[in-house]
Amino acid sequence: MFDLVVRSRRVVTPEGERPAAVAVRDGRIAALHPYEAPLETAEDVDLRALPLLPGLVDTHVHVNEPGRAHWEGFASATRAAAAGGVTTIVDMPLNSVPPTVTPDALDAKLRAAQGRCHVDTAFWGGAVPGNVEHLRPLHERGVRGFKCFLSPSGVEEFPPLRPEEARRAMAEIAGFGGLLVVHAEDPALLAEPAGPSYREFLESRPGAAERSAVELVIRLAEETGARVHVLHVSSAACLEPLEEARARGVPVTAETCPHYLTLAAEQVPEGDTSFKCCPPIRDGANRDLLWDGLARGVLDCVVSDHSPSTADLKVPDFAAAWGGVASLQLGLPAVWTEASRRGYGPADVARWMSTRPAAIAGIPRKGAVEPGNDADLVAFDPDAANPVDARALHHRNPVTPYHGRTLRGAVLTTWLRGRPVDGEPHGTFLLGDT
Predict the structure, then answer these.
(1) I need a labelling partner for 358 at 20 to 30 A (CA). Which of 12, 84, 219, 372 fits?
(2) Is residue 154 domain-shared with residue 88, that is, in the same domain?
């Protein structure tokens, strides 16, 4: 007897799409049976020709609670995640107060999140100047790795690491087999924008600054043996050093984000700072190269970098506005809109947005529709028109560059460990090997 059976002629598995009946017992995928197999179950859902995807794993989410919950809190962020087919998030350590750079700060984060999560939630710790002694204790408490900046973060309580500090943190992290995730921009190559326009903002953060920082991260990884992950790659200039490092066996992975794959600098309306993020959205030719890097596996995954703020911080001046794109609920349809246009299928999107993020962050039983995994599932209509109204999203603040756009594809149902996400928070904390 099963608790749930979900049937689809297009179940997206690690081997590709296949007709199957996904049988669920006690929150786990018990078996994949033939699509038309008669099965004894409490509930039987037949999606027919609609794809069934693994729940997405978004490893780059700024929740901001405690301390800045008016920007985004656990209840609103995880509701938005579930509505977008995301069943696991990993919370970034900065923008909350205190930032997650000590065990006590992690405790504060856990208290703030307790009973408020609609999806499963894991946590990154932070690597900042002077906290090397806290890295191993945070690792032992179950954080997935450590976030650092090589350039200013935008909040004074989370300062960047200088190269020697980064080397020291990486040596410590290598000692216990951890992971460092890096905001890679070289501060020496950044400048203050010359004016309020998007063009001036873009010129102030050139692709060369990303590449220089990525090259530094690779050198330090080779010196220390640390495993590193490059966050939110926006510049195709980073692809060459990443590919060469992989060929040498350097343990480096990299991600990009929906806004870099679906938006382009020439489309940014003047004064619309919902598009502002760091590193910035670059031109259409660069976007094409990022898609090529993703297809070749130089870029491993696509995650949101959901970095929201209140609307008043998005002043119509690209030099002064807060930098961050709010898109947690929209990542899947945004990426699918562009991916399908370029000839990619649901299996590609599942690999980029579920399987690979789970593997990089070391989250077991997530990221694939296969027996033994958690029954995190998404019924997805790939052809549905999806007009975006920022006011209708579950994000805390109605700010997103996708407002007014019509995306392709809609999430119909999200199951977390075999239960539909229906408004009652039943997410769990994923700490350590959980």
Answers:
(1) 219
(2) yes
